[in-house]
Design goal:
Blueprint lengths: L1 E5 L9 H10 L4 E6 L14 H13 L4 E6 L12 H18 L3 E4 L11 H22 L2 E5 L9 H11 L4 E6 L9 H8 L3 E6 L1 E4 L7 E4 L8 H10 L5 E4 L10 H16 L2
Parallel strand pairs: 1-2, 1-10, 2-3, 4-5, 5-6, 6-7, 7-10
Antiparallel strand pairs: 8-9
Helix pairs in contact: 3-4, 5-6, 6-7
Length: about 280
């Protein structure tokens, strides 16, 4: 497995080139970029152009830092609310475009939207599956993996939810973008990996420390400093056939630590768990 860092971890004011330089200097093997709102210093956006992609490809070459995947902050309730499907389609294809232009093989999507206009989880699931099925053929033609992430939005509450959703959509190019930290508060990451198996196409890593046991609350911690049992998680990923990037999606909490030192710390932590 290989180390990567999501660009959200990088100091927000840094330019795109400064971001590539900082992530490369810390020792990461790749970077994950994000489609964000307009004006983000080192983010992509819905108006990113061919010339912008060309400039980023040059940075990737200059710093020997591949783009591992494309995430985004913009999904919100788009996929699960039928009235938002036009915007959801535009975002999906912008992410796929960015991945193809920058040499990444996958993107991150998020189904959800419960509570929006009174939508229930049943409605959101139905709409989200219909959305993915409507784009399934085109996704397969374009050849970019579309990963569905388990986030803190009350949608994927067990690995069986993810398996059922992915299998009903029914495409080898649509699977799980597993966040190995997002279920620690209420479940166990290696259990999810066993059940999701080969459906896992991308992985985020972060860590969470439970106060006592499951469902007891807790706090976000640096990787290897929480309740994640990486010596079980990493072998479980290997057993599932996963050998891709472990993408750190973390944030600096120590105001006394420089960003440069923090990036190196995270790179070291992910390199450590890669060895398990």
């Amino acid at each position: 497995m290989k180390t990567a860092l999501n660009a959200w971890t990088v100091e927000a004011s840094l330019s795109m080139e400064e971001t590539f330089a900082a992530v490369a200097a810390a020792g990461f093997e790749a970077i994950e970029l994000n489609v964000d709102k307009e004006g983000t210093a080192h983010g992509l956006s819905m108006s990113t152009t061919a010339a912008d992609y060309a400039a980023i490809r040059e940075l990737s070459k200059k710093y020997n830092l591949p783009v591992a995947s494309i995430s985004t902050s913009l999904w919100g309730p788009k996929m699960g609310i039928a009235a938002n499907h036009a915007d959801a389609s535009a975002l999906l294809y912008k992410q796929i475009e960015a991945a193809a232009e920058l040499g990444a093989d996958g993107i991150l999507t998020v189904p959800g939207g419960m509570g929006t206009d009174g939508a229930t989880i049943a409605t959101v699931r139905r709409n989200s599956i219909a959305f993915m099925k409507a784009h399934r053929e085109e996704i397969e033609r374009l050849g970019i993996f579309v990963g569905l992430e388990n986030v803190w939005n009350g949608f994927f509450l067990s690995p069986y939810d993810m398996v059922s959703f992915i299998d009903e959509v029914g495409s080898p190019k649509i699977g799980a973008y597993l966040d190995a930290g997002n279920m620690i508060a209420f479940s166990v990451p290696e259990y999810w990996i066993e059940i999701l198996g080969s459906r896992i196409g991308k992985v985020h890593v972060k860590d969470y420390k439970r106060n006592r046991s499951l469902n007891s609350g807790g706090t976000w911690e640096d990787i290897t400093h929480g309740s994640a049992e990486w010596k079980k998680i990493i072998p479980a990923l290997r057993a599932a056939g996963y050998d891709g990037y472990l993408v750190g999606e973390v944030f600096k909490a120590d105001a006394n630590m420089s960003y440069a030192d923090y990036y190196k710390k995270v790179a070291g932590e992910i390199a450590e768990i890669c060895s398990y």
